[in-house]
Amino acid sequence: QEFVFGGELYINGEAVESDKLHTIYVGTTLTGEAIVQEEPVKVPGIYTETVFVLGGHYLPVPIIRVYTVSRLETHLTMEDLTVPYDGEAHELEAFFEEGEDLTGEIHYTYFGNGRVSTEAPVDAGEYTVYAFYFGDEMHQAADALAKLTIEPLSAVITVTCAEEVIYGDLNILNLDAADIQYTVSGTINDDSIGTVVPSITFNSLIPGAGEYTATAYVLFKNPNYDITIEEAILTVIPREATIVIDSLSKVYGDDDPELTYQINNRVFLDRIEVTVRREEGDNVGEYAITATYGEN
Questions:
Q1: What pairing do the DSSP bridges indicate for beta strands 210-219 and 232-237?
Q2: Per residue in 131-157, pLDDT tens?
Q3: CA distances from 166 to 148, 208, 232, 242, 274 (A)
């Protein structure tokens, strides 16, 4: 700012030059340094300027005034930043406004993801970044806020399984026949995506014929990834069973014997509804015995 230091000597209303006119500056800088000098003090602080006449034929009353030199106002700017997760630390950088020629370090603090740190973050998440400049002898302190967003990467878990399994070859205690496998794609830097647990849900202890979805769950998920599960379909197909009807005989005139049969390739003692009938007739000869069965 424009500021006129010193004073002028007037005699009878006219300004005169005199070596008897003196100015002295006394005060303390903002850093605590005591100042006593004849030259104007222009560094930040509070000072008393005294203009007086020493010697000569006149003794005018001294002029005393107090003035303050403030530190220059400082401005920081910092822009928001959005970047994808890449396993590297990401810093924001604050700048002084154009024309502000400053020295000194700008300090940064990162808030977010349950952390407060002066270290730039690596993991995906949203962070509030606070930049602070402590100032110096000539400049005021300044600060700025901005947002840093590290976006998670997309990763895919692809689940595969056997296309078909015969009924009876699979149960919830033994999933070997389902051959459930998975692969992970989209990760970087040998990152672990978490603990992947393949899974398939059946409608009973021994799944009946039908389609079932093979999927996966992720425990202790890595927050740096948005995970997509590509599921697979397992089809349990009916088991082939054979009904073997026993051949029987009787004496003419006797009652028919009980019609009996055996079921081969049945598992778990499953109930299969079978109805056995013989061809009608009572004369001596051979008659066909047939069987029908319900859906299973």
A1: antiparallel
A2: 999 888 888 889 999 999 999 999 999
A3: 54, 9, 17, 15, 22
